[in-house]
Specification:
single chain, alpha+beta, four-stranded mixed β-sheet
Length: 690
């Protein structure tokens, strides 16, 4: 018989509905039972496309004997970290304080009043990887809780003190950066990029060695400096490092060469072997990076190919009937990681039924008898650029592209007949808003590149998602809700949900020039100031003032795989301020946040979004106000096209605002100094370029 999770709004929790474990969702019933019975809480946090979450579930949570021990000794609570990032954020710090680095599955043991006293990530069914078995852990925790309550109190107190220490890290980081230029000084951005470049892999691109994550927020900083003119070392290295990273990621197996889109990360240094799950948020952030690079370097065709293919992937595989987008797809199918995505030469030949074409595809995409993955399978990747293969085969690049396109289309059609990985069908507000912003930026970049059909496609997808988000995920009181599943919108949104949605509205205004997107951006910013701001006005909490009270109200500070709510809020407020649409106390808040986080350059990967947002407060930041009778007036659109064409090449932050007026012109402001209006594209080009 299914357990309580069968009726959950989370596809991940529903995956555990047939476990013999007596699972609860996080909520009053489970927490009250823990207190009433004096039992410790076993908190298990994961998400639907997490490979090791599935491994632990199969090994332990589906095992009758293990489940019996869990049911007898613990109150077992299962949490979807994507639905409840507030809970996950608190308890991830337990394993971080234990020196384990965090991650999923997260396994934490709590006292009945929710205070953690032990934690970890994955635990195997038998001792290995230097870890005890999960059964051994359950026995040890049971003995500790009942036989040594003083030790439980000691551990819980230690973690509570550790939480308090982590809350002061921003002060330590500021001290470390003492004497550094501070945001919004342009020199702060340059220093941050210099430090990022020391962590850049010069051969394969990306940061660190392995596993290797895309880190889009950090790549955005490289892109900002790479657009500067001149041959300064930091500019040249940023330009080279960004180009190399974008190319190597595309050529690796982390990119899906049949359908488009990127997997979450690579297990190796050279981007070859991913965990095959695809997350909406990665593609939301990488798409505009590739689009803007494609506009800046039109000769690098692979950049444009990534954009075109990823747009089609999102539309074909991830879009809901309402126009919003699903959260993720799994790494496994039929219980085997990567089976859906990998090939052998025999499979390729059978599908294509053309030996010459099969040989061409296998040669270009590294499909071999030995394979490059488990089971002798091959992950499609490009060890050599396609142009090199064309020369070696005596073909023009166009001829090779045509052959590969035919082969890839047939392989993709066949792949759709395989058992597909599970798709997490919930709709997350923050991830969708992140994609709306990415699509809007992509549309502007594709216009700059001259790809009008691609731009219209991106714009239609952005508008199609944004409208239901505002209509269904924001209530009459202006509260934003985090998720929707099977028509049910639920769970109070965290700062990311509100900030990302506000910024998405501004991005849509810049793309369409439609004034209707400005009031919701302003309302969402105002909601942040009233519900999420710290009492001192110098930062923002992750959860709303009227949200569920947990053991700690954490502050939004560092970037993770997605930008921090802090950084996106700062950008939202700055851009509204430029547009004279800012809510009350915006200027004071901006100044207080920048002062408090002046040490962000000491940890550029952790504060990349804040450093990027601070560019809008720099003396050289530009704001363009377009004026005219209507957003679709041809003369207004011609001026807007000039802005789009230049913003992918200019190093300075640039924001755009339209207001209705009888005649058409544009006003360019740098800092607090505005130039006289200009009315034709050439004059506007001169103002911006100058």
């Amino acid at each position: 018989m299914p357990n309580r999770l069968a009726d959950s709004t989370s596809p991940y929790l529903r995956q555990h509905a047939d476990n013999p474990v007596d699972w609860y969702e996080w909520g009053p019933e489970a927490l009250a039972r823990a207190k009433t019975e004096g039992r410790p809480i076993l908190l298990s946090v994961g998400y639907s496309s997490c490979h090791w979450c599935h491994v632990m579930a199969h090994e332990s949570f589906e095992d009758e004997a293990t489940a019996a021990v869990m049911n007898e000794r613990f109150i077992n609570i299962k949490v979807d970290r994507e639905e409840r990032p507030d809970i996950d954020t608190i308890y991830q710090r337990v394993v971080q304080l234990m020196g384990q680095g965090g991650g999923w599955p997260l396994t934490v043991f709590l006292t009945p009043d929710q205070h953690p006293f032990y934690g970890g990530t994955y635990f195997p069914p038998v001792p290995k990887y230097g870890r005890p078995s999960f059964s051994q852990l359950l026995d040890a925790i049971h003995r500790m809780f009942h036989d040594d309550p003083d030790q439980v109190v000691e551990h819980a107190t230690s973690f509570r003190e550790g939480f308090e220490h982590l809350a002061t890290i921003i002060d330590q980081e500021s001290a470390e950066a003492s004497g550094d230029p501070v945001p919004p000084d342009p020199a702060a951005l340059e220093l941050a990029v210099q430090r990022l470049l020391t962590r850049l892999d010069p051969q394969w691109g990306g940061f660190g060695r392995q596993p290797k994550f895309p880190n889009p927020s950090s790549l955005e900083l490289l892109a900002a400096v790479a657009r500067r003119e001149g041959a300064d070392t930091v500019v040249v290295e940023a330009r080279r490092g960004l180009a190399n990273t974008l190319e190597k990621m595309y050529r690796g197996g982390i990119y899906d060469h049949l359908r488009g889109g990127f997997a979450r990360y690579s297990t190796d240094q050279r981007w070859l072997v991913p965990h095959f799950e695809k997350m909406l948020y990665d593609n939301a952030q990488l798409l505009p990076l590739y689009a803007e690079a494609a506009a800046q370097y039109p000769e690098r065709e692979h950049l444009h190919r990534v954009v075109t293919e990823t747009l089609e992937y999102l539309a074909a595989d991830m879009r809901t009937e309402q126009g919003t987008f699903y959260a993720a797809t799994d790494a496994d199918s039929e219980g085997v990681e990567g089976k859906y995505f990998c090939w052998t030469p025999t499979q390729v030949s059978a599908v294509l039924d053309d030996d010459a074409l099969a040989q061409t595809l296998c040669t270009v995409y590294d499909v071999t008898e030995a394979g490059n993955f488990e089971h002798g399978w091959s992950i499609l990747n490009l060890p050599r650029p396609r142009d090199e293969h064309a020369r070696a085969m005596g073909l023009s690049p166009t001829q090779l592209d045509e052959q590969l396109a035919r082969a890839q289309a047939r392989l993709l059609e066949h792949r759709y007949g395989r058992v597909a990985p599970h798709r997490d069908d919930k709709v997350l507000t923050s991830w969708n808003a992140l994609l709306v912003s990415g699509l809007a930026r992509t549309a502007m970049a594709l216009r700059a590149r001259g790809d009008r059909p691609g731009a219209e496609r991106a714009q239609a997808l952005a508008l199609g998602a944004a409208i239901p988000l505002l209509d269904q995920h924001v209530d009459d009181q202006g509260r934003v809700f985090r998720a929707a599943f099977e028509g049910r919108v639920h769970t109070r949104g965290v700062l990311d949900d509100v900030a990302y949605l506000g910024r998405a509205c501004l991005d849509l205004h810049e793309l369409t020039l439609d004034p209707r997107w400005l009031p919701p951006a302003r309302a969402l910013a105002s909601h942040i100031l009233h519900q999420y701001m710290r009492p001192g006005g110098d930062g923002f909490y992750f959860t709303a003032l009227d949200a569920e009270a947990l053991i700690d109200r954490t502050e939004s500070q560092h970037d993770g795989p997605i930008p921090s709510g802090l950084g996106v809020t700062l950008e939202l407020l700055l851009r509204l301020d430029h547009a004279d649409m800012a809510p009350p106390i915006t200027t004071e808040t901006i100044r207080a946040v920048l002062d408090r986080f002046g040490g962000a350059t000491a940890q550029p990967q952790g504060y990349a979004s804040l450093l990027g947002a601070a560019r809008h407060a720099a003396p050289n930041a530009m704001h363009v106000t377009l004026r005219g009778p209507a957003p679709d007036d041809p003369s207004v659109r011609a001026l807007a096209a000039t802005v789009y064409a230049l913003r992918v090449r200019l190093p300075d932050a640039l924001s755009l605002h339209f207001t209705e007026a009888p005649s058409v012109d544009a006003v360019v402001c740098r800092g607090h100094v505005c130039r006289p209006p200009v009315s034709d594209p050439e004059a506007l080009h001169a103002e911006l370029a100058g």
